[in-house]
């Protein structure tokens, strides 16, 4: 995952369908599906901004002759166009035009497996605690002289109860989701784990359209190194997730609280039976 925003500019991400454009480290990045193409500024012929439209022409024959995208915000289009304009012809300190890079992400099962391995080795200690719960928790819940079926259900459903209740808390910020859906601006951002927090919490650092450096605390960690922020209140941010649509958020908000409590009932019954044993 990227750990820095663009060296210059605001780090704006312009999305059009399956195509995403942004400038980072003196190059234009274009992602379409699983394929990402990195075009150094020296390989870009010119960029043209006209209202809500952006057009980029390349010198490399292996790339599309031109990219045309539209965005609902003229300010976002102008900001990204200025970033691209600033890197055109930039060959770096060596004076040599760097090559175009093209890479494809691995299929999602392989990405999930590699991501889980990295999180267990280098990520938050909560991942290692979760692994310990999976390995040792089953032995505790099933091995003690309590109803084994009840113990298995308690072990299986307790993490789901915690996750659902935590999601319910996050979904309570529906007003933020509605505001950012209407007028939010998407920018590249840098996430870092908040070690001062008692729970699992993140800080996010990004640069607003006006150049202001902002540090905020999102409710959830997104799946990309991006956030959406409110131009009228940059401290109000939202990390995009796969269930970011307002309708799904509303349904989840209504259901997760109820099922979070329901999934915790077997664990409560298991504890009651355990405490009633004649130790």
Features:
279 residues, 5-stranded antiparallel sheet, elongated, 6 helices, 26% strand, alpha+beta
Task: Using the alpha-carbon principal axes, give the shape.
Answer: elongated
Classify the beta-strand content into a percent band.
25-35%
Mean pLDDT metric: 80
Largest sheet: 5 strands, antiparallel
Please tell me about this protein's structure:
The chain is an alpha+beta fold and 279 residues long. Helix content is 40%, strand content 26%. The protein has six helices and 13 strands. It has a five-stranded antiparallel sheet with strand order 1-2-3-4-8, covered by helices on one side. The chain has a five-stranded antiparallel sheet with strand order 11-10-9-12-13. A hairpin with a 2-residue loop joins strand 1 and strand 2 (19-24). It is elongated. Residues 1-9 have low confidence and may be disordered.
């Amino acid at each position: 995952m990227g750990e820095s925003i663009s060296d210059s500019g605001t780090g704006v991400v312009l999305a059009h369908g399956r195509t995403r454009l942004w400038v980072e480290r003196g190059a234009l990045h274009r992602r379409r599906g699983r394929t990402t193409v990195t075009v150094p500024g020296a390989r870009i012929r010119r960029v043209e901004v006209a209202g809500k439209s952006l057009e980029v022409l390349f010198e490399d024959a292996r790339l599309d002759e031109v990219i045309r995208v539209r965005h609902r915000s003229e300010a976002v289009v102008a900001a990204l166009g200025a970033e691209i304009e600033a890197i055109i012809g930039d060959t770096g300190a060596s004076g040599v035009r760097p090559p175009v890079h093209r890479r494809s992400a691995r299929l999602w099962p392989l990405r999930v497996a590699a991501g889980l391995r990295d999180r267990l080795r280098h990520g938050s200690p909560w991942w290692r605690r979760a692994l310990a719960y999976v390995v040792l928790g089953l032995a505790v819940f099933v091995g003690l002289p309590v109803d084994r079926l009840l113990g298995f259900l308690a072990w299986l459903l307790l993490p789901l109860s915690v996750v659902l209740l935590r999601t319910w808390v996050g979904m309570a910020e529906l007003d933020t989701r509605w505001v950012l859906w209407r007028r939010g601006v998407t920018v590249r951002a840098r996430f870092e784990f908040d070690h001062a927090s008692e729970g699992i919490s993140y800080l996010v650092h990004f640069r607003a359209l006006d150049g202001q450096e902002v540090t905020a605390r999102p409710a959830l960690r997104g799946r990309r190194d991006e956030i959406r922020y409110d131009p009228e209140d940059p401290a109000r941010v939202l990390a995009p997730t796969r269930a970011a649509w307002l309708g799904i958020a509303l349904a989840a908000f209504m259901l997760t609280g109820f099922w979070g409590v329901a999934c915790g009932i077997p664990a409560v019954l298991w504890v009651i039976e355990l405490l009633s044993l004649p130790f």
